[in-house]
Amino acid sequence: MYARGRQRAARYLDRYRGPLGDVVLAAFGVGVVLRLGTTPVHIGTALLAVACAVLILLRRWRPVPVLLAGTAVFMLTTALGRPPDGMFIVAGVLAYSTALYGERRRPWFHAGLVWGALMVTGTVVYGTGWWNTEQFTTFAIVFGGAAAGDAVRMRRAYIAEVTERARQAEATREEEARRRVMDERLRIARELHDVVAHHIAVISVHAGAAGHALRDDPERVWPVLGHIRSAADTVLTELKSVISVLRDPDETRSAEPAPGVDRLPDLLAGLASVGFAVHHRQYGTPRPLPAVVSLAAYRIVQEALTNAHRHGDGSASLDVEYTADTVRIEVVNRVVWSGSRRPGSGFGLIGMRERAAAAHGTITTGPVAGGGFRVYAELPTDDRAVDRLHPPVDPAGVAVGPAAEVAVGPAAEVSAGPAAEVSAGPAAVADSRRGENVT
Fold first, then answer.
1. Whole-model pTM?
2. 376, 422 contact by CB (below 8 A)
3. What is the pLDDT of residues 372-398, one digit of tens each?
């Protein structure tokens, strides 16, 4: 409650900081006009103080007209009698505001206009008696205010420029990552089309010829089958040459099948051997998953735990939940911010999103309360889950139909909660104690 009140007070202070500062500055201007110096206070001084307060309150919105109006008031005051010393301080404040808030950067012109007008008026009214050491003080106040306003203006412009460049660099970096992904997809698709299309067409033609030969003259089918096998071998060889360019040249060749969720214990054991502790919890009854889903789940867990090991505090939690039509994965770790750690490139997160998309699943990544980072993925195991995770949309871009209601129901609650809430579904609660495993 107390922290919420402080946050609300801070928001109000940020919103009304400018008007409150103007009110305080206007009160200060009234005080210096009435009290500073030896000039006796009379009705004219009081009217001047009120005019200065109004000018200070309006200085942000119309800086140049306010400066011109103030100059006219100061000239009239000087012509009617010896002005109070506080008036020159107000002149410096208006010169500062014009240099800071004016549409054009002309601080010395405006400062020279104010000071010159006062000097000309004083010389006309008081002659050579006007020129004394106090006028050098007036010069310093007016031009000093303009210099301070111009310095603040330049610093704000510099900060805004640096911020905009950082934003553009981040946007360019994300756009470059997306472009690289799309270029790689297009290249692979073009290569695969060039390699596969011709030979598949040859196989199709020979398969049709084999059907006719088998029906009319079985002895003629053997050469046709030989052509089919030769074309198939050629396709496999060229596919291997295309896919091989995607491998790391230093990668160890292995004849083992692609990893899946059944290989997670080996992954966790490898991390434990280097001192990285993973609290592994499994909910639901494990079952064979489609190959694409199993591979995507393994790679997402592998990348998430690798990032946790690289940027975390030495531990992470992994929750795997088997539901009726999906498998859900959540990895949470605390992030250690250190100047010695180099920031990641972000391609790992892009890779996880690509894996989830290839399996028709969804994935969310981002910071959580308490200084942690969370990766949550939900991968479908049948067509019903695909429809639920990717509901149809109307022309306005809004999800419609029963699938949309399901997508924004329990699934949204799962992805919104902390690590312990991944098992919040009914099936998970029933199996949460039966399948828990700690590594």
1. 0.42
2. yes
3. 899 999 999 988 888 888 776 655 555
CB atoms within 10 A of CB 291: 12
Report how far Cα 362 is from the mean position of its chain's Cα atoms: 20
DSSP 393: B
List the beta bridge partners of residue 71. Answer: none
Q: Are 403 and 388 in contact (CB under 8 A)?
A: yes
Cβ atoms of 278 and 235 closer than 8 Å: no
Of 54-58, 208-212, 369-373, where does mean pLDDT reach its minimum? 208-212
Cβ proximity of 375 and 300 under 8 Å:
yes
d(CA 133, CA 138): 9
Residues 6+ apart with CB under 8 A from 119: 130, 135
DSSP of 25-92, one letter per residue? HHHHHHHHHHHSSSPPP-HHHHHHHHHHHHHHHHTTTSHHHHHHHHHHHHHHHHHHSPPPHHHHHHHH
Strand partners, 373: 333, 367
How many CB atoms lie under 10 A from the CB of residue 379?
28
pLDDT, one tens digit per residue, over 47-82 is 888 888 898 888 888 888 888 998 898 888 888 887
Cα 387–Cα 390–Cα 395 angle in degrees, nearest 5? 110
Of residues 293 and 413, more confidently modeled: 293
Query: Is the model more confident about 419 or about 222?
Result: 222
Read off the pLDDT band of 420 (50, 70, 90).
very low
Decide: 286 and 345 in contact? Cβ < 8 Å: no
- The one-letter code for the residue type at 134 is E
Do 98 and 110 meet the contact criterion of CB atoms below 8 Å apart? yes
Is the dihedral angle over the CA atoms 415, 418, 424, 428 positive or is it negative?
A: positive
Residue 282 pLDDT > 90, yes or no?
Answer: yes
Tokens representing 296 are: 């995507």
Query: Three-class SS of residue 285?
Result: coil
Q: Are strands 315-322 and 277-283 parallel, antiparallel or unpaired?
A: parallel
pLDDT in tens, 71-119: 898 888 888 887 888 888 888 898 888 888 888 888 888 888 888 888 8
Contacting residues for 415 by C-beta, under 8 A, at least 6 apart: 362, 364, 376, 378
